[in-house]
Design goal:
The complex is a heterodimer of chains A (308) and B (266).
Chain A lengths: L22 H43 L7 H47 L2 H4 L6 H38 L7 H4 L5 H20 L2 H23 L7 E3 L15 E8 L2 E7 L4 H29 L3
Antiparallel strand pairs in A: 1-3, 2-3
Chain B lengths: L21 H9 L1 H34 L6 H34 L3 H9 L2 H4 L6 H31 L2 H4 L7 H4 L5 H20 L2 H23 L8 H29 L2
Helix pairs in contact in B: 1-6, 2-3, 2-6, 3-9, 3-10, 4-9, 6-9, 6-11, 9-10, 9-11
The chains are: A mainly alpha (308), B mainly alpha (266).
């Protein structure tokens, strides 16, 4: 009997090649189609409304500002009509805009991980070739990017819609919470943080509905903290004794007076000028972004250490 | 071969009717989340309102009794009372948000959870039958929610009393109207029934939550803009009775619709 022997083939790698990242594109889409399509359709429907109403508002405001002579009865009537017709609607939409980040976060965040944990399908999902850590990182990052971009685009449309109403009511862009939170990049940053909070709480609580309720609570706490406490301490405030800055008419460029105090016979004001709007936006979006990344990292760490 | 025949026994052949109180335990077991968090929120709300209300009434009495009325000290007291208005307004906003949250978080899972996970095949084939199962659950959860709202309303009415004169409000301002009288409890009930109905209709929890939120907001908006403006009555209590009545009728229709859906679901 002859025995055939062959040398071991060292070049045949026994470890399988890592599954490429772009496979997660298809998986994320497949698992979260409903959520992504639903979110886009709702935002698109509201966007259509904002577009139509916004054209109306802009048209009326142009007529109002072009009215001559300024103090006549006809112009005053236009003024009152604009206020009665557009302020209640604009204010209601503004309130909903301030609630939108947390609503988006509630409906998208926990659904990513808590659903798998609740139904037990994580035992299947996490034992795929790509491994649970890369699975979670890819999913959360993809969804976070898509949601943030959608939120940013939506907030730009709202800004255009709300501009005339903001001018009319002279709401300062730095002092009014309802205006600052929906302008620039702040809205997208808050939506990202809401999503990250939802994902992390979903992983911690492991049940969708309690995670949704907890996301609402944590987000509201963070929002109140930032509004009442943190914004006043951003390093953009100026101290001055010049009272003339605050004597003009209210406009969207009015400064935000934080507090006043008296030293001897001089009055001091601490205020934030409207020119510091973008630095404020960057500071707030900056720490929100860092927080969101930290929460996603915490979620990945929790996924890693959970015993299947 | 002899054959033994006996007359058939007509009594005792049917199984005994499962008593309704069996559903008490089942509802508790399946919906401990709602049955614990609603009373807990109620206790927190009552405590908060008692503390805030006592302070508000005390401050208001001090402001009213301050003499001379135009002095700087009395003006300062008035400014301090303004802070109490912020607290009361905050409580009012939370009260207005509660039905929305209830509609979204508590309503749909009652039926949608069983339907989404497929466990309805087991739940509905229990001895009590699917109609009485659903009715028992909705009745218990709906009652808890409505009673909590009914008990909170007089407390909030007491808390809010001083502000009618200081903030120049009337009972017919919409945010005041919605938190006084019986309409608040009626809105809570309608919110819950709306959630349960869409849970049974859509059969997936999260889409049902989104749809319930949207429909409830639209309903509240339509009521605010259209129904109250074109209401056939204009005094406070007749409007309250009218609105509570049509909300209760709507809730009954939603419950009937939910039961019908459970009957036709395969």
């Amino acid at each position: 009997m002859s025995v055939l022997t062959l040398p071991a083939q060292p070049a045949q790698a026994t470890a399988p090649a890592p599954v490429p990242w772009q496979r997660m594109l298809w998986v994320t889409w497949r698992q979260h189609r409903a959520m992504l399509i639903g979110l886009t359709s709702v935002l698109a429907a509201v966007a259509v409304f904002l577009l139509i109403a916004g054209l109306d508002v802009h048209h009326a405001y142009t007529a109002l500002t072009a009215c001559r002579p300024v103090n006549s009865n006809a112009c005053a009537a236009l003024n009152t009509h604009f206020n009665d017709a557009y302020w209640p609607m604009g204010n209601t939409v503004d309130i909903f805009m301030n609630l939108t980040p947390v609503l988006i976060g509630m409906f998208t965040g926990p659904a990513v991980l808590a659903r798998e944990l609740e139904t037990g399908t994580f035992r299947y999902a996490w034992t795929q070739g790509i491994g649970r850590v890369r699975w979670t990182i890819a999913k959360l990052t993809l969804l976070a990017v898509v949601i943030t971009i959608l939120a940013w685009a939506f907030s730009q449309l709202f800004d255009w819609f709300f501009d005339p109403i903001m001018d009319f009511e002279a709401m300062s862009i730095v002092a009014s919470k309802g205006v600052f939170d929906t302008r620039g990049i702040d809205f997208a940053a808050w939506t990202l943080v809401a999503f990250a909070i939802g994902a992390c709480l979903g992983m911690l609580i492991r049940r969708i509905i309690p995670a949704m309720a907890a996301t609402l609570g944590v987000y509201l706490g963070l929002d109140l903290l930032s509004w009442l406490v943190l914004r006043e301490d951003y390093p953009v405030a100026i101290d001055t004794t010049d009272a003339n800055l605050f004597n003009g008419p209210s406009t969207p460029s009015s400064p935000w007076v934080l507090r006043t105090w008296t030293v001897g016979h001089t009055n001091w004001w601490r205020y934030i000028p409207a020119s510091r709007f973008w630095p404020m936006q960057f500071i707030e979006s900056g720490w929100l972004l860092v927080l969101a990344i930290a929460l996603i990292a915490a979620t990945v760490w929790l996924v890693r250490r959970r015993a299947a | 071969m002899t054959v033994l025949t006996m007359p058939s026994r007509s009594t005792g052949a049917e199984p005994p009717h499962v008593p309704w109180r069996g559903m008490l335990w089942v509802t508790w077991r399946q919906h401990r989340g709602v049955l614990i968090s609603v009373p807990a929120a109620f206790v927190v709300a009552v405590t908060g309102m008692l503390i805030a209300g006592l302070k508000i009434h005390h401050d208001y009495a001090t402001v009213l009794a301050c003499r001379p009325a135009a002095s700087a000290a009395c003006q300062a007291l008035s400014m301090g009372f303004h802070k109490d208005w912020h607290v009361a307004n905050g409580i009012r906003i939370v009260m207005l948000a509660a039905p929305v949250l209830l509609a979204m978080l508590a309503g749909p899972p009652v039926l949608a959870r069983d339907l989404e996970h497929g466990t309805y095949r087991w739940a509905w084939t229990q001895g009590i039958g699917r109609v009485r199962w659903t009715l028992g659950k909705l009745a218990l959860l709906g009652s808890v929610v409505t009673i909590a709202a009914l008990l909170v309303t007089p407390l909030f009415t007491w808390l809010f009393g001083p502000f009618f004169s200081t903030q120049d409000l009337t009972l017919l301002d919409w945010a005041v109207f919605a938190t006084h009288g019986t309409v608040y409890a009626a809105w809570m009930l309608t919110a819950f029934c709306l959630g349960a109905f869409f849970g049974a209709l859509i059969r997936r929890i999260i889409p049902a939550m989104a749809v319930t939120l949207a429909v409830f907001v639209v309903l509240a908006g339509v009521t605010w803009f259209c129904v109250r403006t074109f209401s056939p009555v204009t005094a406070f209590w007749p409007m309250q009775v009218f609105e509570s009545a049509w909300l209760v009728v709507l809730s009954a229709l939603l419950v009937a619709g939910t039961i019908r859906l459970t009957q036709v679901t395969r």
